[in-house]
Amino acid sequence: MNWNSHTSKYENDSKILSIGRDRVKEKYPWFSAGWFWKTKSINKKISDNKGKSDAEVVEKVTKIITGGSPKLKERQNAFKRIKKLL
């Protein structure tokens, strides 16, 4: 599965091929994020880490998404705040 497999949904968007990722970022950020989340099987990776601390799971997901740990503490704190709301 790749972005090309979804281009038929956006073939009427004349700018998507000429502008590329900037157009996706501008018009389809949630679709793009969902596509990435699904293709990287992030839900499964989270489930596979049951028993680990929230901080460890946030770190693992952050590394999958960003390739590193930028702003890890901010992400972990945001997760704590959101978890309290749920």
Care to describe what's here?
- Helix 5 packs across helix 6 (72-85).
- The chain has helices spanning 16-19, 21-27, 29-39, 42-47, 54-66, 72-85.
- The relative contact order is 0.08.
- The chain contains six helices and no strands.
- Helices cover 64% and strands 0% of the residues.
- The mean pLDDT is 85.
- It is mostly helical and 86 residues long.
- The protein has two domains: 1-39, no CATH class; 42-86, no CATH class.
Low-confidence stretches: none
The DSSP helix count reads 6
Helix content: 55-70%
**% residues in beta strands:** under 5%
Largest sheet: none
Number of domains: 2
Report the count of strand segments: 0
Rg, Å, rounded: 16 Å
Question: What is the average of the pLDDT values?
Answer: 85
Based on secondary structure, the structural category is: mainly alpha
SSE string, helix = H, strand = E? HHHHHH
Q: What is the first-to-last residue Cα distance?
A: 32 Å
Note the overall shape. Answer: elongated
What's a quick, concise take on this entry?
The chain is mainly α. Helix content is 64%, strand content 0%. The protein has two domains: 1-39, no CATH class; 42-86, no CATH class.
Write out key terms for the chains shown:
single chain; 86 residues; mainly alpha; 2 domains; 6 helices; 64% helix; 0% strand; elongated
SSE topology:
Layout lengths: L15 H4 L1 H7 L1 H11 L2 H6 L6 H13 L5 H14 L1
Helix pairs in contact: 5-6
